[in-house]
């Protein structure tokens, strides 16, 4: 749906990266949860768990990618570096997560929230009245509320399942925003980074 709606090469690239990350997130998550119920060896389960956690960072960055690539950000500002900065944040988060896997869970969750919220806060204060930001904000709020259940796994009945419901609802909001407001439109100002694509 995303690729079919893309109106130019920049939108096409955004659709591919965002769409691929969406598919990978749910595929890797499915494989990890399947591995928990099938008697795989500990090494396989650990690998699936690490991949599942790493995909969260990739997905967060891919969520922002269409916005920073397709919108016209202020020139001569550090904000223009968000298109690669979000991936640096993801790389740093994945590196930390792989080194200290499940050792400092509160720090890990805090990093997810920082990597997830920081680009959104920057974009919100940089670009005025961009359609779709309400849906992005609602999705972000759903993720944040869901994190409470993620942290309550084992304490609240079905907390992990409730976390996944929040993930599906939030990713649906973000998908709608990207599909409805960014792709297929020729009246959007061309983002600074799109001009070289």
TrEMBL record:
UniProt keyword annotations, A-Z: Membrane, Metal-binding, Transmembrane, Transmembrane helix, Zinc
Family the entry assigns: Belongs to the ADIPOR family.
Domain of life: Eukaryota
Membrane topology: Multi-pass membrane protein
Subcellular location(s) per record: Membrane
UniProt name for this protein: Uncharacterized protein
Residue spans crossing the bilayer: 17-35, 55-72, 78-97, 109-127, 133-150
PANTHER family per the UniProt record, alphabetical: ADIPOR/PROGESTIN RECEPTOR-RELATED, LD03007P
Residues reported to bind Zn(2+): 33, 160, 164
